[in-house]
Amino acid sequence: MIEKSLKQLSGMLAAKDVSAVELATEYLGRIKANAALNAFIAIDEAKTLAQAQAADAARAAGNAGALTGIPVAHKDIFCQQGWVASCGSKMLENFVAPYNAHVIEQCDAAGLVTLGRTNMDEFAMGSSNENSAFGAVLNPWDRKAVPGGSSGGSAAAVAARLAPIATGTDTGGSIRQPASFCGVTGIKPTYGIVSRFGMIAYASSLDQGGPFGKSAEDCALLLNVMAGFDERDATSLQHAKEDYARDLDAPLAGLRIGLPREYFAEGLAADVAAAIDAAIAEYKKLGATVVDISLPNTRLAIPSYYVIAPAEASSNLSRFDGVRYGHRAADYDGLTEMYEKSRAEGFGWEVKRRILTGTYVLSHGYYDAYYLQAQKIRRIIADDFQRAFADCDLIMGPVAPGTAWNLGDKNADPVAMYLEDIYTLGVNLAGLPGMSVPAGFDTAGRPIGLQIIGNYFAEAKMLNAAHRFQQATDWHQKAPAL
Amino acid sequence: MKWEVVIGLEVHTQLTTQSKIFSSASTAFGAAPNTQTAVVDIALPGALPVMNKAAVEKAIQFGLAIGAKVNQRSVFARKNYFYPDLPKGYQISQFELPVVEGGAITINVDGVDKTINLTRAHLEEDAGKSVHEDFHGLSGIDLNRAGTPLLEIVSEPEMRSAAEAVAYAKALYSLVTWIGICDGNMQEGSFRCDVNVSVRPEGQKEFGTRREVKNLNSFKFIEQAVKAEVQYQIELIEDGGKVQQATVLFNPDTGETRAMRSKEDAHDYRYFPDPDLPPLVISDEWVERVRSELPELPAAMQARFVEQYGIPAYDAATLTASKALAGYYEATVAAGADAKLASNWIMGDVSATLNREEKDIVDTPVSAEALAGLIRRVSDNTINNKTAKDVLRKMWDEGVTDPNGADAIIERDGLKQETDTGALEAIVDEVIANNAKSVEEYRAGKEKALNALVGQCMKASKGKGNPGVLTELLKQKLA
């Protein structure tokens, strides 16, 4: 059952071959049996089963949608009424959300059953999930390896079949990179397609929610649920509701795939390069043609991102001051010390590093040299992509220069960790959709992801390309031995 | 040395919207603490601001009313600082690109008009309040006010005296209440002024170093604070000191200003564009619609009053001090009162009584229609001016709103002017007989003596005699 697609599960639920309660019970059992992976920060069996019972009742009453009763795991970044939304931080470890994020509302309305809250890098800052206040997530393929981040818990949960689908967020690669490291499919949509209302902000102009699944098809179905205009998010796009699964089976003949030179340059691991080459060869067999393109400022995405994201974060995280909710130091003398101690105790090192960086780049006298300059680069990078899309329909390349590294390996050197984001950051800076599709394994057996980048609103086309690839290959069907 | 005073004002006007600038919570004043707060106002994790169009519309109204440029594109920025009543740790304001730029307001001091140019007006949210009284040794936070829409209106440093600063503040106050974007309740903080004051030797081009007096919520305080600042700064310089840039507070009890923080410990607010809010785009159509719905402004109304009612410019200016007063005047004339008499009565007895009772024209117990009824009886000689004043007093005390209310009182109290020549002749004869001295003086050519005789006749008639008829009778009999 755990290898079934959403379509199959939906059919089984409709045919009463399985109930929502049975499904939820099966997955809860797996989550508990694999607690060592640390993929979940919280589960609440009573809540899950109550929701599953309600789903079964809706099915019995004939009020069910196609996905009613399907279990889902939510990244701990989405406010969900009655659940702690810790965002991977000690700061919010006791914060019970009094309202629902738009994504949660949409999932609830579709009848999805919440299995629990997945682990993540604190406030979504990190590429390895080691920055969680609740401990690192282990990569289900190799427990010595990181699962990627920041949505490492969601990626690991889907990879280990602890949930059929999961929600995540992607600010600089936080869906695509863990999807790649864990061998699952994940998509970061066009900025503005998924409402950020109720999604705890890291870097507002870059954050975007998106789905994880075992396949492109499952991702398309979950994206159908998550996407949609929301007037409570001023950056939500008034884009007509679309069915992201509508073109899954369309033929790929004539598809022009752009291969950015800069994504295959120095620094790319040989086995990753080989897997991507093999995937491109597969696409040629499916009728696609390949175009050599250039994204000349790829390198500049790293400094641009690591100025803009911390700048926004330094301001977004100011609300965690110990005054109204969240962690407050036990002892303090006066207001300033209350702030200082509460924040010093509540935030982890990476969060502090980014708050400091962000505060610095926005400071009087530095703003022009850093923040404004970074915004200029951001525009140039977006322009580069538009020039590239004049010659191709989709861009493909690796998600990351290498595969999952060992836990602890890059912790001492934050800059080395930042460099791992080189292929994913540009998509966020430009606001484009991007996804990761399983495309093989390295010599140590750790998964490799193929990145597909589309132009604005090209999600259906990307999912089509991913789905056809998954019809022709079986990388996405491989599951780790637990 | 002669000193020149330089003053600029930053005024925070609270806009009269139903809901907050970035949330749907109510802006009503006086609710129980923290009951008017949406997720944005408490700054819960994941909460996002959404622009309230009504606040933007009021900013456009203001821009049009002062002849300013309404920017088609303006940008919201975050002003970052930590304070317990600032839940997000930043205030959403406008920094580099405000919604309104330029414009001017005309003030009048001692009969002389002066134009004060405005720099800009920008939209921003108010903070909450810290409450220190209610909790021993602790501070409470009330976030009801957090997110209330403000329009911060910044003038050029073009005022040169406390009187000009007050005149500007009053003119601005009258304008924002006139167009209805602010309720003008200064006690509740709807109109708060920060006053920048500096001094320089007369003739010097460069500005002196300024100090900013924060949060003045009455015109009297503005005047007192400016005077105190000017005196402080001049004395400091004349004693060989130097003014340090600072933010100061005015203490109304002592009449002194006290530095709150100096430039050295001024905040670095780290302004940057708010990524949660796209730039505010205002279309030409929107501006034109607001323009077409804008009420007639004081200057235009003054000109019309002179033209339409034939009253002096001074009267027109006084009557358009507020929209309510102007409305009362027009209603009085519309109900049949002579335009000039109506102006005299409203600027005279009505205003005097309101002032004495510390009331606004909207609280007047005598309706415009009732006042018109009274004025008509003056015009048609039913009563004389002196009696009319008494009747108005009675109408006031009795709260008369009926258009025929004056007639009823005149009838009830027998105040009708005596115009019957027979009855008045007897009075005149008696006065002539009893006032030989005045009679003699009049006959000797002293015109003033006649006035005294008329006065005696009025007294004898208990105020009811028609002074015109009495004068004629006296003249006839003494001829």
Automatic annotation (TrEMBL), chain A:
- UniProt keyword annotation of Nucleotide-binding present: yes
Domain Amidase, residue spans: 22-463
Record function comment: Allows the formation of correctly charged Gln-tRNA(Gln) through the transamidation of misacylated Glu-tRNA(Gln) in organisms which lack glutaminyl-tRNA synthetase. The reaction takes place in the presence of glutamine and ATP through an activated gamma-phospho-Glu-tRNA(Gln).
In which family does this protein belong, per the annotation?
Answer: Belongs to the amidase family. GatA subfamily.
Q: What is its EC number?
A: 6.3.5.7
Which of UniProt's keywords are assigned here? ATP-binding, Ligase, Nucleotide-binding, Protein biosynthesis
Give the EC class as a word: ligase
Q: How does it associate, per the subunit comment?
A: Heterotrimer of A, B and C subunits.
Q: Which gene encodes it?
A: gatA
- Write down the NCBIfam families for this protein, in alphabetical order: gatA
Known Pfam families for this protein? Answer: Amidase (PF01425)
Q: Active site: which residues?
A: K75, S150, S174
* Claim: Chaperone is one of the keywords in the record: no
Q: Which named protein is this?
A: Glutamyl-tRNA(Gln) amidotransferase subunit A
Question: What's a single GO MF annotation on this record?
Answer: glutaminyl-tRNA synthase (glutamine-hydrolyzing) activity
Concerning Gene3D superfamilies, the annotation shows: Amidase signature (AS) domain (3.90.1300.10)
* Substrates-to-products reaction catalysed: L-glutamyl-tRNA(Gln) + L-glutamine + ATP + H2O = L-glutaminyl-tRNA(Gln) + L-glutamate + ADP + phosphate + H(+)
UniProtKB/TrEMBL annotation, chain B:
What does the UniProt record say this protein does?
Answer: Allows the formation of correctly charged Asn-tRNA(Asn) or Gln-tRNA(Gln) through the transamidation of misacylated Asp-tRNA(Asn) or Glu-tRNA(Gln) in organisms which lack either or both of asparaginyl-tRNA or glutaminyl-tRNA synthetases. The reaction takes place in the presence of glutamine and ATP through an activated phospho-Asp-tRNA(Asn) or phospho-Glu-tRNA(Gln).
Keyword Repeat applies: no
Q: In terms of domain of life, where is this protein from? A: Bacteria
The record's HAMAP family line, in alphabetical order, gives:
GatB
The reaction(s) annotated as catalysed by this protein in its Swiss-Prot or TrEMBL entry are: L-aspartyl-tRNA(Asn) + L-glutamine + ATP + H2O = L-asparaginyl-tRNA(Asn) + L-glutamate + ADP + phosphate + 2 H(+); L-glutamyl-tRNA(Gln) + L-glutamine + ATP + H2O = L-glutaminyl-tRNA(Gln) + L-glutamate + ADP + phosphate + H(+)
Gene from which the chain derives? gatB
Q: How does it assemble?
A: Heterotrimer of A, B and C subunits.
Q: Which family does it belong to?
A: Belongs to the GatB/GatE family. GatB subfamily.
What is this enzyme's class at the first EC digit? ligase
Among Pfam families, the record links this protein to: GatB_N, GatB_Yqey
Keywords annotated in UniProt: ATP-binding, Ligase, Nucleotide-binding, Protein biosynthesis
Where does the Asn/Gln amidotransferase domain start and stop, copy by copy? 327-478
List its EC numbers.
6.3.5.-
Against PROSITE patterns, the record matches this protein to: GATB
Enumerate the PANTHER family for this protein.
GLUTAMYL-TRNA GLN AMIDOTRANSFERASE SUBUNIT B MITOCHONDRIAL AND PROKARYOTIC PET112-RELATED (PTHR11659), GLUTAMYL-TRNA(GLN) AMIDOTRANSFERASE SUBUNIT B, MITOCHONDRIAL (PTHR11659:SF0)
Q: Which InterPro entries match?
A: Asn/Gln-tRNA_amidoTrfase_suB/E (IPR017959), Asn/Gln-tRNA_Trfase_suB/E_cat (IPR006075), Asn/Gln_amidotransferase (IPR018027), Asn/Gln_tRNA_amidoTrase-B-like (IPR003789), GatB (IPR004413), GatB_C_1 (IPR042114), GatB_Yqey_C_2 (IPR023168), Gln-tRNA_amidoTrfase_suB_CS (IPR017958)
The identity of this protein, by name, is: Aspartyl/glutamyl-tRNA(Asn/Gln) amidotransferase subunit B
UniProt keyword Nucleotide-binding present: yes
